[in-house]
């Protein structure tokens, strides 16, 4: 498949491009795509089957959303190192162990962002190092409460739903 790319907007964290591609039948198609360097979402398991969620004000939707901690990858950064950095920045927790769980695309119809899901265990509390303007509050809740929030609509953030449900179905019974 042939395609060419025209940059429409470049920002510090992402760019918007128009991709033109020719399908197998010879028809030329154009799609506007947000290109993103990728990110991590962290499932921070606190002792006694609790998880650290955050309440995070999101300007884009003008709401505080309940989320798992997450952050954008720096150029060339390993997802585990990004998870280590973001967990401490957003929650103050430090973890003894990090484990890669899976990767997924956030919204591949318009966005190429690949999200890497990482498990953090052996947590020790400490002070967060939040970026200026971040309005984040820790919420350490029992696992059962997090699952109820995922199913009753309290949690509306896609990466958090994927992270919680993936961990619940593959690992929480261990």
Describe this protein's structure.
With 174 residues, this protein is an alpha+beta fold. The protein folds into two domains: 2-35, no CATH class; 39-170, Nucleoside Triphosphate Pyrophosphohydrolase (Alpha-Beta Complex), CATH 3.90.79.10. Helix content is 21%, strand content 46%. The chain contains three helices and ten strands; from the N terminus they run E-E-E-E-E-E-E-H-E-E-E-H-H. The protein has helices at 79-91, 143-152, 158-170; strands at residues 2-10, 15-22, 28-35, 39-46, 50-58, 63-67, 70-72, 94-105, 114-124, 136-142. Strands 4, 5, 6, 7, 8, 9 and 10 form a seven-stranded mixed beta sheet that branches. It has a three-stranded antiparallel beta sheet with strand order 1-2-3, with no helix packed on it. A hairpin with a 4-residue loop joins strand 1 (2-10) and strand 2. It is elongated, with a radius of gyration of 18 Å. The relative contact order is 0.20. The mean pLDDT is 92.
Total number of beta strands: 10
Looking at how many chains there are and whether they match, the oligomeric state comes to single chain
Strand % is over 45%
Radius of gyration over alpha carbons?
18 Å
Regions with pLDDT < 50 over 5+ consecutive residues?
A: none
Number of DSSP helices? 3
Helix content range: 10-25%
SSE layout and pairing:
Blueprint: E1 2-10, E2 15-22, E3 28-35, E4 39-46, E5 50-58, E6 63-67, E7 70-72, H1 79-91, E8 94-105, E9 114-124, E10 136-142, H2 143-152, H3 158-170
Parallel strand pairs: 4-9
Antiparallel strand pairs: 1-2, 2-3, 4-5, 4-7, 5-6, 5-10, 8-9
